[in-house]
Amino acid sequence: PLLTPVDHLDRAVPLDHVSLSITPISLCLGNRRLSRGTGFFVGHTQGDGINFLSVVTNYHVLTGYPPQWGRSPLGDRINLEIREAGGSPNKVLTAAYPLETKSGKATWLTSRSHPKADLAVVPLPLGSIKFEVPPYCLGMNWVDYDIVPYPGEAVSVVGYPLGWRDKVNRLPVWKTGHIASEPEEDFDGEPRFLIDITGRQGMSGSPVIAGHQDLYFNRSRLPRMGGSGALLGVYASNALMFDDREPATEGWVSGAEPAASSLGDRPEIGFVWKA
């Protein structure tokens, strides 16, 4: 992982903790929104014990392009929504975060060991945003799991398909998919696996969650009873699947997928970049 998360919040909340840790992400240039996607908050600590947040999402959600194109971001900032723990779900703080410093240095991180990984992490020091209480986020217990995922297993992708959500409570949508490759292996040599899901614009950057309420097997291949959940990775758009070539038109800007694509000319399969 790019950063080491730590859980510093009580997960015993009335609503699902994952739902409360999700944010819509708008890529903006000036006053214009260029595209939309999903991200989620992860809590961290530094060596001196200072807590801070990071937003995890896809590279192309921040830039408008897949990483292999090597282009600068289309926009100059992203807009986020952050929930304070213990409050009403529709009580959010809206934050605008620049993608570059004044000197032109990127304010977000990518994977050095896997430059083609469609992943990005945006550090958000808690001191830069005024909170009455710490915000909801995911922690180490979500990635340090003992579940063994398997092909055909149902997983949840939590985000904003076509920007759709509960507008009153400002909560995301849960969609169901199934693991479509051997998740313990790296698909095509990259740290990812496949899921079979009807993906839509706006879902890119969503967390992929495995949850068990019944019998499952741990990494020692021993049976365990349910009540366990795990962050398996980050969902990436179906449109990025099999073609690294640049399209003739830059149709990404309306929602992080090529506008010329249709559901009939690509498989309903997406990448999950491993947590």
TrEMBL record:
Q: Which residues cross the membrane?
A: none
The name this protein carries in UniProt is Serine protease
Protein's organism: mine drainage metagenome
